[in-house]
Sequence to fold (510 residues):
Amino acid sequence: MMMDRNPRFPDSRGTSFSPILRRNVCFPPGNLSRLAPRFNQDSNNNNRAVETKKDFSGLGARSLPAQPTDLPMGIAEKYRRGETHAVSALYQLSQVLKFQLVMKETVTPVSPPPLPVKEFPCTDFYPGRSACGRRSSLYEQITQVVKKEFNELLEKYPEFNCSRKTVAAFVIQSPTGYEVVAIGTGDTNTNQHATANGRLLHDSHAVVTARRSLLRYLYRHLLLFYSKKSTMVKKSIFQLDLNSQLLTLKRNITIHLYMNQLPKGSAQLPPRLHFNPCSISAWEVNNQIGLHVTIEGKVFSVFSSPLTQMPTKIVSMSASDKITQWQVLGLQGALLSHFIEPIYVGSILIGDASCSDVRGLEIAVKQRVEGITSKLPMYYCVYRPHISLASAVHTTEVNSGQRALSMNWSKGDISVELVDGLTGKTVEESPFKTGVALASRLCKTAMLSRFNLVAKEAEREDLLHATSYYEAKMSSKSYQEAKIVLKTCLGDSGFGSWLVKSPVSDQFCI
Fold:
């Protein structure tokens, strides 16, 4: 229960614990003088926690009188009406129940500050709703092209219907219409340990799989641009920016992201939680809007997950946090940042019939990174996409006992690839396989191979001298600088520390 105002967060709705205690609690004679110094000492400590301890007989504590059989309901009623502070009610209850209450000041990890959350106006799309106007029509077109492409892909492979549960897709909007360029499915990440060969697919959640499929699409269009053949260059989605000497998307091209479920992590904020600073709900919300990690598909807050006990286990940041990162650093990642300016998603659509609220995603993507643009290097910013509900692509129910398969596809692929999300490798029955090692075409080794091919076509000898995947990533100076700014700001704002992965998985070359 965080009670003290943190000077790092001047707009925090927390309050000082000591004045509340003096105002609301009637201490027995002598108790206030005994307890008050405990709440005034060391005023430089930014964080306070209240601990309660009940001494039970038989556990090395003194015997206590029997508890009364009737509890005065006035304590609970006053607390519910907001007339009594939670700590005061707890102290009064301890007196009635005859148990010992011990209050201590302890230094705890910084908890995310309550955000000034707004109730967002309903601009969502539902079939038949006319108030949404032209924007809803746009979202309907996006949903329909995703539905068409996705169904056509899986109609060829009905035996892989178990991979339908969670779907994400990237759609490019251009003057000629809408085109699905990357699709991913999946709901877990690998249970393997980090290796130094770059051949394991660490994260197979749908939106992460779709984004890595998008990278393959971007590599294809970089090769078109650097081919130096006019007909090929014309087909590329890229053009040269004379100021930055980097490539940018051609004018009138926008990228949209569709997901059939809210991404795991802070985006899944329960819609009915309220931001009353003196309620348990506020503590719950603060915990939920912070950073999260996924371990074998299960989600944990960075404040509660025992990450230090798994130094070699592959742990991934949650999908919500990765989307937040992409809207600051760009979808292209470190390797492609050598060639192109940051690429951002213009809108995010959630096609989940059971979802009625997207404020968690709004908070994760926009509000947690509010105000950091001025600290970012050139060409990076906090891009604020429009987030809305949309119609569902499919309603397939999947048996939870089925395999954790993840499907990936990008525009230009002849067939889909099926990956076992837990092993991080392609399954034997996958329509597409790279070889006997069953390494996914989305793995880091495959990405480094494409990077080297583009560097050669672009005549970037400096990039070809990188001795490892890690060196190629770290030599993208602006991207790494922006990444440090993002992680620092999230940490300083109380949302937790971004996971630092073991460097083992990046120390490979081809």
User: Anything to note?
Assistant: The longest helix spans residues 133-155.
